[in-house]
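Field: sequence (string)
Field: structure_tokens (string)

Example rows 1 and 2, in order.
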Amino acid sequence: MQSWSDVAIPSVPGQGPPLRLFDTADRAVRPVTSGGTATMYVCGITPYDATHLGHAATYLTFDLVNRIWRDSGHDVHYVQNVTDVDDPLFERAERDGEDWVVLGMRETALFREDMEALRVLPPRDYIGAVESVNEVVELVEKLVASGAAYIVDDAEYPDVYFRTDATEQFGYESGYDHDTMMRFFAERGGDPERPGKRDPLDALLWRAERPGEPAWPSPFGAGRPGWHIECAAIALNRIGSGFDVQGGGSDLIFPHHEYSAAHAEAVTGDRRFARHYVHTGMIGLDGEKMSKSRGNLVFVSKLRGEGVDPAAIRLGLLSGHYRVDRPWTSEVLAAAATRLALWKQAAALPSAASAEDTVARLRQHLADDLDTPKALDALDGWATFAVERGGDDASAPGLFADAVDALLGVNLR
């Protein structure tokens, strides 16, 4: 699947401290110990609607991780999927009377446009579920052969399920108790009441063909992939087990990330699918989480169509800490636009006070679990002083602009 256009990153002198991120599984902030090539898998969209600000906040978070790694001299192998075959896509297509393939292609194209406008660095591998079906079939075959999965005794729909007890460590990633798992499993695409399952929490790996649904051949009959196995297969075949960061919104902690990790671990025998599980908070509007079911979405494309500078959208979303559930308001956007104007004014000065200490603080705050509020405050302080007092360092405005571009993804020129 085609990704979006790459973004040139300025080179900034110096280097920041090693990156530390909060790991959901360990419930603590700890160092991200990457090798020469840092590896990251971030769960992508199900393309049945436009990119809303909740999506954007998540992808901006992991864009910062990507930029910090690159600033530290790492090569980065970033993988992202597109769940372009799934129930929500079929339901929306049926509601609107259009082909689900056309709908998925259109919304994926719009997502790429939004990411490009927000200056998000593209993944090296951008993989759709449809193009990875053969990989999923191969992985499900291994799970069935090992006894980690089974075929439901149902003559009409012999679905394949993952045994929740197939790995001893199941539950380590989320840390949730059984009742919480059951609640989220039912709310987030699971089927605890499916007859024939050995355990209500067993997760679907392969859905046998139903009337009117797309299907692909497999040794266990025609059908299509389950949700969680898609990400396990794509990640294993691109960056392998034990990669540095698996990322997504906090609503993916369970069941999606718990199961995709368990699927992979049951095959590889590894203790952890990813070294770090990193999750972003939710973006709200009018006191509620932004979601399609509530109909309270703010779309990136709509804001762009209204003439809002994508850099202001980016700064507005980065003004709160990535792990905190936070609101999107007109005041947040107005403050971001004001900040952007101040920074551009400072970057356009012929000279200013030295920016080296400010760039060092920017790197320090970002390396400390992506503390963007403190990072933005440090940049505000320098920009305000530069505009009000000036200085005699002709290289300072350029260094400031390069650092903001390289590390925050905001072009001030």
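Row 2 begins here:
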Amino acid sequence: MFRTLDDLDPDQRVLVRLDLNSPVEDGVVQDNRRFERHAETVRDLADAGHRVALMAHQGRPGDDDFVSLEQHADVLADHAGVDVDFVDSTFGSPALEAIRGLESGDVLLLENTRMTDDELPEKEPEAHADSEFVRTLAPEFDAYVNDAYSAAHRAHASLVGFPLVLPAYAGRVMVAEYEANSAIATREFDGNVTMVVGGTKATDVISVMNAIGDKVDTFCLGGIAGELFLRAAGHPVGEDVGDMDLFDDQWEKNHETIESLLDERGDGIELAVDLAYEDENDERGEIEVAAITEKDRPYLDVGSETVAQYEPIIHDSEAVFVKGALGLFEDERFATGTVGVLEAIADTDCFSVVGGGDTSRAIELYGLSEQDFSHVSIAGGAYIRALTGDPLVAVELLKTE
């Protein structure tokens, strides 16, 4: 399927694309799971004696998190256990000079790829391969490694241009993410397959449900999508209240699909039986869905009875996929749904994939162990594409068969 790091000839000059895009708070880049994951690829290449130059992006032009990668080099070095030098140039003279000075086992991080004009426009790979960015950097290297699975759905120069002009290989993260995230489309499971669906981007997860419904026995819903399905089932929820802007627009875009899914697959769609809210004492309150007569407040989590309803479904599954949180888990009062289903999955002997950066953060935040899950993905948009079976342009360019 892919050529991997293990297929590289000795002493190669290797250009590597990572995804180190991270939250930035008060100008400080925050450590996260991406650094830890990509560190394996960096460490393996350095230990093998290759001369390594790294590319990555951070933010978008005009956004607050559009910053230099200088801090990223230090964070990555801490995780990889090797020195990571930094040059504030992507393919200019300072970058070329630093690249040519690399010796065996050296690692260099180039400046933010999105600070170059050639990077961001979505173009065909052939057009990117002919860009000044690619034509300037490629001759300095023997091989290209793409480890940025979480950005692989984007047709940007650093992701799709280099595989056309250099021998291309998949990094450790790329291989692990591809195998786990495509399992729902490519693997056959003898027992029940369950998908836990939540989050705020209901349009994304509804498209997944529509695309892979025949591969999933039961969907357990929460979050924005869960409320929208409750609305379609006739309950007075799934609407914006106050200055909220989460439900009505997504309802307009998706209500026909939601109603069709309920009509065709209603027996395989489990909806919340109770919801949680912030009461007058700023505590968690819960109300049965059947008792709601109008939506007069935000609902911030599924309720305890819903978790109890979902747990045996998960325990009886051979495979469980998670996309999106069931509530506002960052607030401990409203973590019951998300943490409850994650604990149920962790206690089940099943193949399990937890997708999306936000949801996977709950594992660390609430003291769960990644080892209790088959795979915890660091991808968002790429995970959605993989679940629906849509090809990822940067992944396709790495395939050898």
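free_text_note (row 2): The domain at 182-368 is CATH 3.40.50.1260 (Rossmann fold).
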